[in-house]
Design brief:
This protein is mainly β. Helix content is 5%, strand content 45%. The chain has 2 helices and 26 strands. A hairpin with a 2-residue loop joins strand 14 (179-188) and strand 15. The relative contact order is 0.16.
Length: 366
């Protein structure tokens, strides 16, 4: 028979005993991948490479391409393992680059590379058609490119967007003080044209951006503040929410490149370059909940520092990257030129993150 004294003792012991819920992680996830390989060096010494984009071949994964900007030169084209194939527009000085799939041009669907360029005396965006057969870029814009900011302010960052609501194609471009322009890409008489459809502004220096083509959201990095989230549709308001703040979860200024790892049913991750501590922060695509950190090991190729642009794909690109690849600009100022480092997604994901090589960036009919 329990006495009042014994009951009191049992309650006291129960309250003093800690409850451990083993199913709830108590520490942030940290991935320590080593680079599998790296691209050929930049053709210009010093701070030259900046951003990258990954293009997935429509039928043969091993023929996919990596595009890399050289802000002191042109747009570089590499194969899926980083070997150089082509340099286009060597005086364009592109800063950021992105890819659009399935753009309608002259009765067919083509893939585009879009880059903000800082060539002397011009503030413009240039567009190239990606030839899947020859694996090369062919420029669609004329000698002056698409003028942005009245051709008076240098483009800093840029990214593309295909609306899930209307199917229309856009690019966003920003300048140093945080001003943004959104342009719609169309064709007139078989030629590529662009129309300014919206402007807005962040409070200070902005560069990296990425648009989610399923959720219709734009993520915009403000270097000293963090990552903003706003509606990517041209007729939407410009209200924004700070979903990742500098100083929280190790996010350290400057906040630079942004990329999205897509997975089915809204899964996947937003990835941000935390330049101040040479790491990359992971957030869920839907709730933007902090997941963890990518902190690359030095390995035989060294670890990246001062990273600007990043790119990621869930799709297989070569035998070395059967589950996707994460491409990182290495800002280390080597005498023989900077490089982009390539990481296998499974080396990042381990058993903690989603691996979904089946989600396809191409829509039906592209």
């Amino acid at each position: 028979m329990l006495t009042i004294r014994r009951v009191t003792l049992l309650i006291t012991l129960a309250l003093a005993t800690p409850v451990v819920l083993s199913a709830i992680p108590t520490e942030a996830f940290v991935a320590r991948p080593e680079a599998k390989t790296e691209t050929a060096p930049a053709t210009v010494a010093g701070d030259s490479y900046d951003d990258s984009a990954i293009w997935i071949h429509p039928t043969e994964a091993a023929k996919s391409l990596i595009l890399g900007t050289n802000k002191k030169g042109g747009l570089h084209v590499f194969d899926a393992d980083g070997k150089p194939l082509q340099i286009v527009n060597p005086t364009a000085h592109p800063n950021n680059v992105d890819v659009l799939y399935g753009f309608p041009l002259n009765g067919e669907r083509v893939d585009l590379a879009v880059a903000g360029c800082r060539e002397k005396g011009k503030a413009c965006v240039r567009v190239w058609r990606i030839d899947a057969t020859k694996r090369e870029l062919v420029e669609l814009t004329d000698g002056n490119g698409i003028a942005v900011f009245g051709a008076k302010k240098e483009p800093y960052g840029s990214c593309t967007y295909r609306s899930p609501k209307t199917g229309k194609f856009y690019f966003f471009v920003n300048e140093k003080s945080g001003g943004y322009e959104q342009h719609e890409l169309t064709t007139t008489d078989g030629k590529l044209t662009a129309k300014l459809v919206r402007t807005f502004k962040l409070d200070s220096i902005a560069e990296g951006c990425v648009a989610d083509e399923e959720t219709g959201v734009l993520y915009a990095a403000e270097e000293k503040a963090g990552v903003w989230k706003l509606d990517a549709e041209p007729d939407a308001n410009t209200d924004k929410t700070l979903i990742a703040k500098v100083g929280e979860n190790g996010l350290t200024a400057d906040v630079e490149g942004l990329a999205i790892y897509y997975a089915k049913n809204g899964g996947g991750y937003l990835i941000a370059s935390s330049q101040g501590n040479n790491t990359f922060k992971l957030y869920t695509r839907t709730e933007n909940r902090f997941v963890g950190t990518i902190d690359p090991k030095p390995g035989k190729l060294g670890s990246p520092t001062d990273t600007d642009g990043i790119a990621v794909t869930n799709r297989p690109t070569s035998a070395a990257f059967p589950n996707g690849v994460f491409v990182v600009q290495d800002g280390t100022a080597r005498k023989d030129g900077q490089r982009f480092k390539l990481y296998a997604w499974e080396d990042i994901a381990g058993d903690r993150l989603v691996i979904d090589p089946n989600w396809n960036p191409r829509r039906k009919g592209d």
